[in-house]
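Friendly challenge for the regulars: who can give me the structure tokens for this chain first? No prize, just bragging rights.
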Amino acid sequence: MSVPHFPSELVNITIGDFLYTYGFEELSLLRGIDRTWKAAIDAAIANLPIEAFVPLTNATRAILKSVRVPHLANRACEDGRVLTGERDTLPKYIKLWAGWLISTDVVSSGEEYATALMLSKQLNIACKSAWEMASYRKSSKTFQRVLPYFTDNGAGVKLAVIAAVGNLDALISTVNWYGSDRLWDVLYTFGSALAAAAGGGHRNVVEYLLGYFVTNYRTHPLEQYEAAFRGAIAATLRHGNGDMSVRLLHVYHRYFPAVPKLLLNSWIAMAAKHPDDRVSVTLLHLRTEPGLRERFANFKLICKTNSKPVVDGFLRQRSMNLNQGYLEKKVAFRCLLSVAVGVGHPYPVKALLHHGAHADGVPTCRPCDLPLWLAVQRNSLEIVAALCSYGADIESIGQLWNDSDDQFKEERGAIVMHLNLVQQQRVAQWDAAMGDPQQS
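First reply, four minutes later:
Bragging rights claimed.
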């Protein structure tokens, strides 16, 4: 039997009387009656000061955790004179950033609670110690250990805060001011800007960040990219945002290495709480490290056979992304092209280039693992020529070449002549395309 609909005024009065008479622990037991009553009961409990939950028993701990986000938002919107208690660090922190957003016109005055709620939600998602900071005394070791992270008000935090409330224009303006590198900082408090936008469900901000990544991940590689994506995926899975989870997982699958097995298991567990067939199928299609290590080893053996049918058959399977970095013996990220060049047979290298492998490998390659440098080391003019014909960056190995001894350079005289010729041809092609300055 469904519960009859009651006016909200009557519900709130009834809940208020019950809370005053029996306390919030008894009131919380009634949250399963009806969605309307649950929402109203949660709102009433969230308005209580932290002292109402202290000391933290198993029952009060569970209740406070369930209403932590609106509780922090309510506390942050209280008068400043009230926020002077022992456990007011997080509400004051949220209040500080909400005030900054309003003072900079990122959000309008009068939207304090909505802003505080968004920031509280993101803090709850990203900060590993949000619970301790909200409930522990300032004298505790945990509190003192993580407190310095809450004093950082640098560019990375500002970008994450703006992304959390979803103001794209303000985010772009701030990126132009501070630089795009800070856009991918992963903060202890709010996570990355991508994770903050994904956690808040701001599709336009997420798409802007994805567009930036796809355009710049190779020309401007950053270590923070992967951590930012992982935080964003976790945020959407926790909130059951299926559309955004699928979007982020597709990009992650295309551009990043295999997912560690434990991380994938945690994602699957999160997804199970908000069932969505699209998300589950996408997660099950992600590459995992054990399987890829085996495929990686197989490819190395295939290159050693130098058999055209075998190499072509492997590439037709499309079981590995040609422009993906993979862990080899847990030492460094390498790509299939680097492996083929390292083996030394020209045909596998040419086949990879023909099928779309980037001549410079992947952004995660160390300079010493660049395909062109590996070819120079092997003194293979044929492989060097093949890489250059597909646009390999000659300048990327300049420092390694300069650091080499004279004998190494002398033994590779033919390669040097070829690289110089290619460089001259590229300069001439560029001048022709842009207009020869000597002719103007």
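The CA atoms of residues 153 and 205 lie 21 Å apart. The beta strands are 326-328, 332-334. Your move, everyone else.
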